[in-house]
Every structure is written in structure tokens, then in C-alpha cells.
Amino acid sequence: MPGKVGVLALQGDVREHFDLLRGLDVASVGVKTIEDLETVDALVLPGGESTTIGFLLDEHGMIEPLRKRIEDGLPVLGTCAGAILLARSVLGGTDKNWPTIGVLDAVVHRNAYGRQVDSFEDDVDVAGAGTMHAVFIRAPVISSVGDDVEVLATHRDGPVVVRQNNILAATFHPELARETGLHRLLVEAMRG
Question: What is the predicted pLDDT for the residue at 158?
Fold first, then answer.
């Protein structure tokens, strides 16, 4: 059974994730509603503006259904803003009450590398996915993880790719470098 990967299509790098999934010959669909969410076997939370995506998820009534699907085992990949949305604790930003999904046992600090002009690219070695070119744009930093979280890659002595059971999170944008390693891990988790 091949399965279908959803890409949260409320804001962010949606098209780029579709392109990567198409290159892996994986069926994919945009997820904008609870009904869309119910049709997918795995989900990508794209990079973009985490506050905006969080408020849109809340406005569409999707936070709780999404949390429940992930807690029930839906494989999910969050990149940059997606990693922020997955984290249980988020630091930084001016609005401390913006909605998150909160399923990843990690503390993530928004925009910790600095402003847009401080963006950079580098190669990182990801366990199970090989060396990937990573694009860090206003990237978050994972400042701590729980005991059940496995660190798959580090950069500047901190985690940049982590996995907790069915949850995979990266602080960079693999979709902008056309790197498929994390998407392959997601598809493997989906196909079990």
C-alpha cells in the first residue's frame, strides 16, 4: 500500500515540498481542512511563518485534530516553522499565546540564529539520510530535547534534526536545497 503524504497548505514552502514528493514518486495532496487531514497517511509541516501558520491552524479548528492524529501515530515532518509548531515549548517572539501543536518533547527558540540577513547554508550529516545541504533562514534552534528524542544531526554543537517516534523535525529548509533525505525518512515511516 503506497500511501498519500499531505502537505499543510495554509502558508509557507508548500510547492517546494510537493516537488520533492513528486520526485520520490509519492502521491501527495494539500491539507487545508480537517477533512483533508483525515485522508493522508503522513504529513509535512512546511517552513514559512510559524506564527501565521499557528493562527491559521487555530482559525481552521485544526490544532486538536492534528495533535490527535500525530499522537495516534501519523508520521509527520516539520521543517523550520514546522519544527517550531511541533515543539512543546517555544521561546522568542512577542506573542507568547500563539497556537502550536506541542507534540515534540523539545524546547525550540524561534529565529535564534538572527534576522533574515543572518541566514546561511551549510552541509549537515543526518543519520539515516546522509549528508544534506541545509538552508537556514531565520532558523530556530533546538535548545533541549527530552529523553525520548533522538538527535539525527547537529550543527554548531546543537541539534538540527530530531526524531521522536513518528515525529521528525528539522530547523532548516531541505525543500529549498531540493534535498529528499528527510522526505525519504517520512515515507519509510509511513510505509512502515
Answer: 92
Pairing of strands 27-31, 4-8: parallel
* Per-residue confidence (pLDDT) for residue 115, from 0 to 100: 66
Give the percent of the chain with pLDDT over 70.
94
CA distances from 90 to 20, 82, 105, 110, 192 (A): 28, 12, 11, 7, 30
Domain extent, residue 127, equals 4-191
Catalytic residues: 80, 173, 175
Residue 94 has pLDDT above 90, yes or no: no
CATH number at residue 61: 3.40.50.880
126 contacts 181 by C-beta, under 8 angstroms: yes
pLDDT at position 97: 72
DSSP state of 139: -
> In b/e form, how buried is each residue of 59-82, taking b as 16+ CB within 10 angstroms?
ebebbebbbebbeeebbbbbbbbb
State the total domains in the chain.
Answer: 1
Q: Which residues pair with 155 in a beta bridge?
A: 158
In Å, how far from its chain's centre is CA 174?
10
Mean pLDDT of 18-26: 95
